[in-house]
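Appendix B. One record, verbatim.
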Amino acid sequence: WKTKSHLLPLSIWFMWLLSILIFTIITFAIPDNIIRVNFSVLKINNFITISISALAFVISMYSFGRGVYTEEDLSELYIKDIKVYYSFLSDYLFSGICWLIVLFFSAMKLMIVLSVPIWFSDLSKIVYLSLFSLALISVVSIVIKNMNRVTNKVIINAYKIKNRNP
């Protein structure tokens, strides 16, 4: 919670909310003969497979990120700025939680059949797709942040080597 502002850039949050708004307007305010969102492409079995694969990918990215820093490095981060340390962990936790929620709702959709109005069904599909897109964005963010961490670590070690051997 302390590092929620560091999860994704504000511009990404804005674009994500804007896309939800656009999907909602297209679905509920614009007549279907002009433009229509085809929700029939949502195959829940595919989302279960994708979610499980994404969770495994998040774990592998954590292992990769953890391999960049030693325990001593992480201890130094914790001592210098506790938010930086928690920011490191929250990237993986946020993405993992997003994918777990997608997986949970996918599994529940297969098990529980509800009779709800069409508008509620469409709204729930928009929420589901928005959560799925947020989970995808968070995984891409982890990859980018891990590449930045590797680059930073290489630069720090290069300066240490350079200062050791004048």
